[in-house]
Automatic annotation (TrEMBL), chains A, B:
<keyword id="KW-0678">Repressor</keyword>
<dbReference type="InterPro" id="IPR009057">
    <property type="entry name" value="Homeodomain-like_sf"/>
</dbReference>
<dbReference type="InterPro" id="IPR001647">
    <property type="entry name" value="HTH_TetR"/>
</dbReference>
<protein>
    <submittedName>
        <fullName>AcrR family transcriptional regulator</fullName>
    </submittedName>
</protein>
<dbReference type="InterPro" id="IPR050624">
    <property type="entry name" value="HTH-type_Tx_Regulator"/>
</dbReference>
<keyword id="KW-0238">DNA-binding</keyword>
<dbReference type="Pfam" id="PF00440">
    <property type="entry name" value="TetR_N"/>
</dbReference>
<feature type="DNA-binding region" description="H-T-H motif">
    <location>
        <begin position="34"/>
        <end position="53"/>
    </location>
</feature>
<feature type="domain" description="HTH tetR-type">
    <location>
        <begin position="11"/>
        <end position="71"/>
    </location>
</feature>
Length: 185, 185
DNA sequence: TTAAAAATGCAACAAATGTTGCACTTATTT
DNA sequence: AAATAAGTGCAACATTTGTTGCATTTTTAA
């Protein structure tokens, strides 16, 4: 089991392992990256890997979670958030991590990424709670928020699959067009 | 590489392997199911597995694709399709496969499932093409369709995560509520 | 500064993975 | 019916995986 630790050695090792995985992901498919290889790239013994993570996926999930947290910090930094601003930050964030999301999608790992981000949906809800012009039953708001998040996500994936054929402005325009029929603005 | 074959032996083997995987998925987590085990359950040699599939994931994807095709057949069977009917068929379909989708979600394999279904998005678009009351640029319709599909999907996932705490009617009502703010009806 | 706690490297292990050559059986073609 | 093609089982192989005990180093606490 992975225990949270403050020990400098432990933190350093975990960071090295994450960096090693990210480096290797640029070179070869996820499923061909062995734990042996990750440990070697991180200059650590293989057993040390297993003392921190149960699996390659657990290591990746740690990084995905840190990404989601960074995204949330971006949202929290904004003022007077509405869904339009959320969309802007969302798009800008992923343009910034364009290489990573390409690799994630190519290796069919986007489900894990969405899961990591969905974990923070309640926080996002809280941030934007008072900015909507809903006339919707509160009970269905949860569903609506999930619908919206999933929709934005799938568009992001579509954008990745097109090999980023659209600009920041294209994507933003698309969100605006959709939002005219949707509950966010 | 997996070559498509009509040979009865080959088809039979592939079916046995798929059935074996589905059976084992009910018993233990995906990542703990070994290929050795799948082959044994299917009464086949391990080498036969590799002659048909490159990996456990390739085997699963074959089944996911067959599921997506079945779903598409359901849609095609309907007449005068609009998005409300699509939602009904969507919900009914997954209630029918409730055990499978639970297992898929629990093992973080829903990304693969969405991918299999997204592959058929163009066909769904074609089915419902003339039934919308759009006032939307055709260029953005692709985005809107992707948004809609991703949204419905994320609600499905939310439903699974709640351990199916909502009924067919609850889900349908949620879609209707959302659609009042959305481009489909 | 010293003692206790935590993390690491090394080595060994059983098990699973991915691949291949060969003999044999099943299916298709002529 | 015979010849060709395709699929299977068996066996062997190098490699990776996941796990653990023990000695050594690094970090924390007294």
């Amino acid at each position: 089991m992975t225990h949270t630790s403050n020990n400098p050695s432990a933190i350093r090792s975990q960071e090295w392992l994450m960096e090693a995985l990210l480096f290797l992901l640029e070179e070869k498919p996820y499923h061909k990256i062995s734990i042996k290889e990750i440990a070697e790239k991180a200059d650590l013994d293989r057993s040390t890997f297993y003392r921190h993570f149960n699996s390659k996926q657990a290591l990746l999930e740690r990084y995905l979670d840190s990404l989601a947290q960074e995204y949330l910090r971006r949202l929290e930094a904004g003022e007077n958030m509405d869904m339009g601003k959320v969309a802007k930050i969302f798009i800008a964030f992923w343009i910034e991590h364009i290489d990573f999301i390409r690799v994630i999608r190519k290796n069919d790992l986007d489900g894990l990424l969405l899961k990591a981000f969905n974990k923070h949906l309640p926080s996002i809800h809280r941030l934007t709670k008072d900015k909507f012009s809903y006339s919707m039953n509160e009970e269905y708001m949860e569903f609506a928020l999930a619908f919206n998040a999933g929709g934005m996500w799938n568009i992001l994936m579509k954008w990745v699959d097109s090999d980023f054929a659209h600009s920041y402005d294209d994507l933003l325009k698309a969100f605006e067009e959709i939002s005219r029929f949707n509950f966010f603005r």
